[in-house]
Amino acid sequence: LPEDVISEIKKLIRDGASDRSKKWANALELVHAAYKAAAVQRPTPDMESAWKQYEEMISYAIDQLAKYRGIDGDWRMTSLTMTEQAEGNYIVAELENRTVNIKGTVNDIIRSLKRKNVKPVRVVKNKERIKLIFKDNSGKKFVVKLKKPVS
User: Fold this and answer.
1) Rounded CA separation 39/23 (Å)
2) Which residues, in sequence order, are bridge partners of residue 91?
3) pLDDT tens digit string along 75-105?
4) CA–CA–CA angle 33, 103, 32 (5° rounding)
5) What is the DSSP secondary-structure string of 56-84?
6) pTM, whole model, 2 decimals?
């Protein structure tokens, strides 16, 4: 995104964090509201640079909420969830009827698969899972289904 758009999103995040009348469940909710107010579409993990900016905005929102509402403010997720975010997410991946636990982000998984000479075709998201559709060099499609493990 252009720098002026990033500045606008940051201002919206800062204003949202400092406005005590707004009740945020977490930093992600604040970021989503800022993107919506700026009329900017949220990126998908396959949009590498836009996704990196999105991750930076989430981190910025955490900083702003902690600054204006305190580190243990009413905006904060449980400490376990925060620890998982800081260390990277554990994701359950299903590929060809095999289930594996992966530590990392969706972006890490896409990068790892790209190094294995497969190309992302599409990312499909819903509330519970993300489906990554890839194609290998021979043109064969395969799907990786990702979901957060049940805690």
Assistant:
1) 21
2) 102
3) 655 333 333 343 345 455 555 555 656 666 6
4) 5
5) HHHHHHHHHHHHHH-TTSTT---HHHHHH
6) 0.52
